[in-house]
Design a protein that fits this description.
By secondary structure, the protein is mostly helical. The chain is about 70% helix and about 0% strand. It has 19 helices and no strands. The protein has helices spanning about 10-15, 20-30, 35-40, 45-50, 60-70, 75-85, 85-120, 125-135, 145-180, 190-195, 195-205, 210-235, 255-265, 265-275, 290-310, 330-360, 370-390, 395-420, 430-464. The protein is globular.
Amino acid sequence: MVNESNGSASPQQELETFLSPEERNKERIVKKYEMTKDAEAADFDPFAERKLDNPTSNMDTLTHLLKASLGTGILAMPKAFKSSGLINGIFLTILVAVICTHCAYVLIKCAHVLYRKTRRTTMSYPEVAETAMQNGPQWGKRYAYSFRIFILVSLFMTYFGTCSVYTVIIATNILKVANHYLSSDIDLRLIILILLMPLICMAWIRNLKYLAPVSMIANVFMGVGLGITFYYLVGTGGLDFDKVSNIKPPVEWPEFFSLTIFAMEAIGVVMPLENAMKTPKSMLGFCGVLNKGMSGVTLVYILLGFLGYLRYGDEVKDSINLNLDQEKVPAQIVQIAIAIAVYCTFGLQFFVCIEIMWNCIKEKFTKHPIMADYAMRTVMVTVCVLLAAAVPTIAPFMGVIGAFCFSLLGLIAPAFIEVITFWNIGYGRFHYLAWKNVLVFIFGLFALIFGTKDAVISIINEYN
């Protein structure tokens, strides 16, 4: 008992007098910010307890991450450099890559903290959001479920719409080559409907472990398409530093940010990839899977943007493959290679939608879950393809949803989740964690406003 004459002790100090030295030491460690010390102090190791039938290796995860980030958006990088300037584009691309990678890193890091707090081994993105609110400040608990639903709906809308756009992209690239060799034009909608069965077969791959070879094939074909494109940019001459600007006025930079962020962002696949890993800790760290993958992606983005803008200057089009001579065979190979790469990417992108939908309905199909899973996948792909066939010009509309949702999901939400997760742990010296997230929030708000604005302008231009 504390002697009253010596001054009253705070409740926390009074409680600590009854704890053993070992318990007091553990309590101090848990309060520290560093993840490594948290892991050493915790009694529950979520990674040792995680049991998976077909876990993915680090190489499998890296392959998926590369494919998720090296999508068709990379073909718009020369146009992005046109808005920023040749030299300025290099530094701004690195800035965007660092922020996007950091936000993905933050989401995984918060999930690892919450695994130990809740004694769970895996969580989806919506579950991380909900659990952070439930274990954060008192005022946030009432909004936990609403926050989860918001993240879930935003993810589903974004990735379902993206897969619909992917269907249109595949069909469009095939159609361009087919119309060149056929005497009569083929209806785009017919090509889209023909893709239904191949896309269903792709969606039937139920495990990320078995999707890894498909992602590897996608990376190979995307590499072929980019390789031929690089040949056109470098091997055919025409690189002229005099016809490009090194630094464009800041008023033109918003278009650069909107194009680059939404091309590079892959926040929706980060948690599914982490949940399927055999060694989840390898996702993080300075030389972790996430940093390795995004470093390679950033390098390719810079090279294509730099050389594409340098080759065509202000004449560069929305997608660099449109600048290639469509009458020549190499350019047609690029079209087919991109179509195959996007097709092979469909399964990984659609995995996000499947996971969300299955978690919502799986409790109703406990007798025949495998049959129900395949039926659900078939119905979802059919709806996705029919949407693409009904509205082949869906891409500009999805641009608005993507600009709005990716800014929230990829930038603003992870920063908010980190603030809530470490609410009771601490923000480090001078509250640097909180100030850092304020800057990320401002950047995300900037991307949301200008990205949505550019997407709306694209719709207006499409229908004018």
